[in-house]
Amino acid sequence: MENILISNPEKLQEKIEKFRAGRAEAIHVVSDFDKTVTRAFHGNEKFPSVISLLRDGNHLTPDYAERAHELYNKYHPYEIDLSLPFEKRKSIMDAWWNEHFALLIECGLEKKDLEDIVGSGRISFRDCAKEFFNILNKNGIPLVFISSNVVGNTILMILEKEGMMNENIHIITNIFEFDESGRATKVLEPKIHVLNKSEIAVKDHPIFEKIMNRKNVILLGDGIDDNGMIEGFQFDEVIRIGFLNEKVEENKNSYLKNFDVVITNDGDMGYINELMKKILE
């Protein structure tokens, strides 16, 4: 497959053999959601995020988009400034996310806004994703999503809409609570952003009891920071699979240093399905 890069084929094969020896009972999957199991592009156009869809003028108060952009302009330069200490960048992200959550509530976020976005069909799973979900469900392998999606409620809604929300799926993300009229009132703790995923310990969630003895882990993410999702978990072996959706030549070397397998150019999940079948046969 032209869009599949493998950092060390011999090492990957050794990991596959360890997974095969432990069988399905020893495996769980931890994954990012946006641009990992969902597509990043439609043709040459990027698939819009939930937040960008909320800025389209049909949702929230008219001043939301401008105020959200002000927060972006204020905080994003610090998020990407690698000359700053990591803890400083993380604290700035904490402030940004808290202010943005408060802004969404102030600007009238309602459950029906999210239902409208999910129903629009403008968020799409990668090809072969449904087969991947079915393989995991059939073999009783837990799939844990850890997502910094600002409005993570949409993850469950999308999975349910596509008939892909199975009992083996567990979601750790930013969840808004709504009152009886459907208006957002608060965001549940913990709040998750791209720089604190490593601190959102799975061991602090009910799912931990179901995966604590499943120490062979398959990790899926579209960013190098997604490797933090496995920190704090005592695993025996991990196969790291990264989706490098754009700027492939510029970023492929850094991705190959951080992932066992790199799927480029917004590729499908066919390779992962074949990998799972090889492990489970």
Report on the structure:
The protein is of the alpha/beta class. It has 2 domains: 4-44 and 125-280, 3-Layer(aba) Sandwich (Rossmann fold); 48-117, Pyrimidine 5'-nucleotidase (UMPH-1), N-terminal domain (DNA polymerase, domain 1), CATH 1.10.150. It contains 10 helices and 11 strands. It has helices at residues 9-22, 50-54, 64-79, 86-106, 111-119, 129-138, 153-161, 208-211, 248-258, 270-280, and strands at residues 4-6, 27-31, 41-42, 45-46, 143-146, 169-172, 176-178, 184-187, 216-221, 237-244, 261-264. Strands 1-11-10-9-2-5-6 form a 7-stranded mixed sheet. Strands 3-4 form a two-stranded antiparallel ribbon. A hairpin with a 5-residue loop joins strand 7 (176-178) and strand 8 (184-187). Helix 3 (64-79) runs antiparallel to helix 4. The chain starts with a strand and ends with a helix.
Give the helix/strand layout:
Blueprint: E1 4-6, H1 9-22, E2 27-31, E3 41-42, E4 45-46, H2 50-54, H3 64-79, H4 86-106, H5 111-119, H6 129-138, E5 143-146, H7 153-161, E6 169-172, E7 176-178, E8 184-187, H8 208-211, E9 216-221, E10 237-244, H9 248-258, E11 261-264, H10 270-280
Parallel strand pairs: 2-5, 2-9, 5-6, 9-10, 10-11
Antiparallel strand pairs: 1-11, 3-4, 7-8
Kindly name the structural category.
alpha/beta
Instruction: Name the helicity range.
Output: 25-40%
Span of the ends, CA to CA: 21 Å
> Count of helical segments?
10
- Please tell me the total number of domains: 2
| Strand residue content | 15-25%
Q: What is the gyration radius calculated from CA atoms? A: 19 Å
What is the CATH T-level topology of the largest domain?
Answer: Rossmann fold
Which overall shape is indicated by the principal axes computed on the Cα atoms?
globular
